[in-house]
């Protein structure tokens, strides 16, 4: 079965669930999974339905048209996904390869179910590895000067626009995207940062962690926004470290946390379990 | 606000959500929290709604009557709780006091919201401590012979029946309840076992753990059934142990896990987040 | 058996272990536990020995005298503890009671083995509770003006000096100690901060955590220094939070982490497993 | 620097540390890391030293000869390793590839430092993948009949003997080694079992876990002994599961735990941090 997934965010008021579930049932659909969260502080209603369309008397396009009156009644932010169509995830990477290779393993083994239209990197190092899988690899060096950066990110954006991915994953891509790219692909670009944010933002978080003498290190999966390492957090996790661990050990222990947090966060994102409101995420787990 | 909580289990088929939410909305209620789980393997539908009754045009009794046609349509296992009425939790304990004292702290500080009609123990040790809180304490010794046991458990059951608790918690009560009591209070008696079940069932699990040389110990919160330590599991957790830990250390480390798992499991149970089907739990978290 | 504990820090060079262990064995002592850590980056050697003194042909005072040549040879920072003498831990608290009550439970039940000479608080709220255990309780209000603060902390310091504790625990004491107190009791004052530092330093960390939308909250046990929440970290831990958790939930979930981290850190400190160098701790676990 | 590693197990009595450290220092060695554990219940002394041999006035062979009197004095079980010589780890696998590929990644990236003389499998599936790394791959089918099994395991043992590995890792090798092989390579064969033992021994542990309705699943890294899944445990870890997880989910979540536990346990084993006594491990971490 390829179910439909429906996510809704709107100002909360009585009747939304009855109206939406009534609409679905009335057209022959069966709700097989549902999550709801009404946030008192923001007054917002968030919902995610998974629908068995076996007996649904309309296709996804018709659904959207027929559902319009309800959307308008509640001024809904709304998304309907027919899971028959595979999601496209574009990967970006620099030189450090553990997150990229981990995602490729999970993709190849079928654990994560999406298409990879291409990989973009500011280094040529992983070209051969990526192309071995039959995936196009674009090497776009990012110079240090402003002018060069602009050219590089224009080229990067052109490739993204050409392949039309649903999601871009920065799998340890060590460049800061320009604000206009963050705005253009809002809530579509996922980054893995190698600290438990907001601790140790910016560069070299493991060095910062060692310097501070923390007993935990971590990783954070978040949507990229204009403010560096300050976007909505999707998932975080930690590993315990000891006084005898040096930076190399932190990097090693951190790699496993990064892989785990990124793949888990991406999975939730792809299954449309993640809704964003006011720089925070609702994650229906 | 004192919301209503509605839990439903029944064979899955289309229309349940629409019918239930339509009923609630139609009578002026607002669904502020909802969880649903349709279990493919059993074909069962499980749901939990939290309802704001501010504008509900019926009280809890009327709700149950008016809702009857829907219950019958789907042959629902159904429970409606008006949270205005406080839950009654009866505690049972032997000599080891950390779980009891932890629950009393959480209760006294308002973290866990219920009434404690009384404490029953097979030992007198904690009498003074419990009565200091103004809670009646019944000491019912449990002899080793069958006849004596029967008398003791009849007396225990009489006290339970007199105080009519919603839930009984075995907070390290080191006696095995007779089958007839397990049957009588099905899914109402919660036990904390000091291992990650099914490892180390029965007596002295920490000694068993040390003997086996495990690197993790744990605790399990579960409903009591006739089969010792084999009832539906509500929650579990673990702590890491090392080769230099002796039984005393395992007991010490385990205490914190037991307190944490029992209070967390009890909290979910009291908020009616725990549904039971076929010796397994659905926990809407 | 009441073993001796010996901790040593000095610049690393060959022969320390042979000299120290030779000295102990030569005088009839048996080393039953040993930890060592040589830190490449600082060039420091750190060691902890537990010694069975049953056949030791000298008492603790003589040990110190006879050991002097070795201390001088290596310019050692050195501490010898005869565990026969109980450690004194002075507790300080404001109004929030979970850490204090948790420590009192662990102390009363014998899990943590020390004497509590007295409790100091800037509020009278916990007086009755503490005195019930036969522990003196000093209420010293801390005014907001500088002059009043100075008077209050002088009085506080006088009480500390009168009772001569080995360690002071700030069990959710919500005042900032003046720099001169931090200096006077260096590495003797342990604080529990309710975030995984360095995230959310200062006031209201749970509010900060909710605002940032983190998926983990935590607690940190550290030595108090002049720089607020920046002292050497002894232990940290975290709890997972979800989008539906409000500040109240974070406080509730955090309480358990705070209790756990503080009691664990204090235990390691009291067993002299924690050595400090350059604002970082070595924890021999 | 390529340090020496020295591990010792013997009956505990005073003087061991002084004698051993005196010997090392006397010959110009510097102890840069030391762990010791004296087990009261067994009366055994266990130790691990890391020695900087820069100024050592003897090589590893001479060390063993000159150290002989001390070995004999204490009837020591003793091992000296010159880390200049790379460890050889032979991998065995069936069809499920995540543990093998994870180890190959950690090996290739230099995170785990050993040589892989060959891979043995009872299936041909991973031949191409393994040979791509330049590693010989032996496919030895294991028939179901006793006679065929015997032939297969004789052939397997011949390959092991030919390549003389220090350690054999069963990276999800789904066959049970015959008792004579377990005896022959005692404490040299490491297995990863996909449950937190002793729960769910034998086949299909994830199915067993789902059936029992546990809230945690896990993995265990242990030395292989004649008793199936009952050998000395090196490491364990768990992942949290929920009611909506099916066997596929448990398998998916479990894979990450298996990889993590196996690589961590293997790392400790290779660094000679793991000593075995009476079916339990001492892990100097």
From TrEMBL, chains A, B, C, D:
Q: What is its EC number?
A: 3.5.1.10
Q: Which domain of life is it from?
A: Bacteria
Which is one Pfam family of this protein? Answer: Formyl_trans_N
This protein's pathway reads: Purine metabolism; IMP biosynthesis via de novo pathway; formate from 10-formyl-5,6,7,8-tetrahydrofolate: step 1/1
Keywords in UniProt for this one? Hydrolase, One-carbon metabolism, Purine biosynthesis
Q: What are the residue boundaries of the ACT domain, all occurrences included? A: 5-92
In terms of PANTHER family, this protein maps to:
FORMYLTETRAHYDROFOLATE DEFORMYLASE, FORMYLTETRAHYDROFOLATE DEFORMYLASE 2, MITOCHONDRIAL
> Which HAMAP family does this entry report, sorted A to Z?
PurU
The protein here is known as Formyltetrahydrofolate deformylase
Say which species the protein is native to: Thalassotalea fonticola
What gene codes for this chain?
A: purU
């Amino acid at each position: 079965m390829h179910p439909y997934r429906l996510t809704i965010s709107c100002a909360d008021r009585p009747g939304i669930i009855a109206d939406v579930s009534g609409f679905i049932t009335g057209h022959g659909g069966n709700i097989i999974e549902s999550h709801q969260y009404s946030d008192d502080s923001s007054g917002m209603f968030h919902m995610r339905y998974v629908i068995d369309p076996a007996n649904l008397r309309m296709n996804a396009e018709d659904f959207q048209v027929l559902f319009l009156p309800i959307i308008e009644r509640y001024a809904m932010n709304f998304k309907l996904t027919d899971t028959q169509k595979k999601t496209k995830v574009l990967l970006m990477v620099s030189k450090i390869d553990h997150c990229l290779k981990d995602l490729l393993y999970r993709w190849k083994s079928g654990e994560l179910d999406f298409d990879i239209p291409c990989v973009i990197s500011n280094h040529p190092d992983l070209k051969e590895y990526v192309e071995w899988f039959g995936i196009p690899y674009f090497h776009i060096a990012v110079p240090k000067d402003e002018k060069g950066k602009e050219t590089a990110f224009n080229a990067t954006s052109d490739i993204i626009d050409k392949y039309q991915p649903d999601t871009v994953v920065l799998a340890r891509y060590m460049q800061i995207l320009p604000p206009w790219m963050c705005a253009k692909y809002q809530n579509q670009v996922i980054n893995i940062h190698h600290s438990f944010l907001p601790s140790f933002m910016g560069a070299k978080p493991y060095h910062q962690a060692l310097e501070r003498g923390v007993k935990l290190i971590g990783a954070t999966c978040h949507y990229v926004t204009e403010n560096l390492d300050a976007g909505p957090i999707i998932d975080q996790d930690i590993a315990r470290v000891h006084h005898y661990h040096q930076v190399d050990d932190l990097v090693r222990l951190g790699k496993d946390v990064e892989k785990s947090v990124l793949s888990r966060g991406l999975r939730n994102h792809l299954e449309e379990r993640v809704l964003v409101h006011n720089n925070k995420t609702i994650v229906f787990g």
